[in-house]
Amino acid sequence: MTALRVNDIKKFMELLLSGEAFDRFMFIEAEVGMSMDHRISGRINRAFYTSDENEILGSGVYHLWANAKDSVRKTVSGKRLPVRMKIVLQKEGESGTQIINIRFDQTGLTVVTGFAQNGFNPDKQPERDWDKEACEFLKSLGLDVDIC
């Protein structure tokens, strides 16, 4: 697990909410503190879709960020910044689940990585590899990040 401070919040939020950089991640949840608190689950509500649409969605449990970001963007849009926001994204890697926790509040924006290994394995190298990959991914987007 690594905490990364993102120094260019506006650029990061544009990439997250309007760009395609995070589209391959699954959207787990978002919590947004505005004049009211909002919580958005990324779980696919199968009852909402027709059987044909469910077949297209496949067997996944969560929506892709590409399909969910418009709902989150509409929630945070307005003249004032949210008081706080948390977005959890994840993707499946070769040896486990790779997680990105995005946290914004009055102190700034932090991305915290997480990793859940498939099965028991005392080797922490896959977690370290994901931490490094996530940092390099953010830097490849032209973001200025510091390790906290």
Which keywords apply here?
single chain, 148 residues, alpha+beta, 7-stranded antiparallel β-sheet, 7 strands, 30% helix, globular
Number of structural domains = 1
Q: So how many helices?
A: 4
Q: Which percent band covers the strand fraction?
A: 25-35%
Query: Based on CA inertia axes, which overall geometry fits?
Result: globular
Number of strand segments? 7
* N-C termini distance: 11 Å
Tell me about the biggest sheet? 7 strands, antiparallel
Helix content: 25-40%
Quote the average pLDDT.
Answer: 93
Give, in order, the helices and strands: EHEEHHEEEHE
* Secondary-structure class: alpha+beta
Rg (C-alpha, Å): 16 Å
Strand order of the largest sheet: 3-2-4-5-6-1-7
SSE order and pairing:
Elements: E1 3-6, H1 9-17, E2 26-33, E3 37-41, H2 51-57, H3 65-76, E4 84-92, E5 96-105, E6 108-117, H4 125-140, E7 145-147
Antiparallel strand pairs: 1-6, 1-7, 2-3, 2-4, 4-5, 5-6
Describe the fold and architecture.
With 148 residues, the chain is of the alpha+beta class. The protein has one domain (3-147). 30% of the residues lie in helices and 33% in strands. It has helices at residues 9-17, 51-57, 65-76, 125-140; strands at residues 3-6, 26-33, 37-41, 84-92, 96-105, 108-117, 145-147. Strands 3-2-4-5-6-1-7 form a seven-stranded antiparallel sheet, covered by helices on one side. A hairpin with a 3-residue loop joins strand 4 (84-92) and strand 5 (96-105). It starts with a strand and ends with a strand.
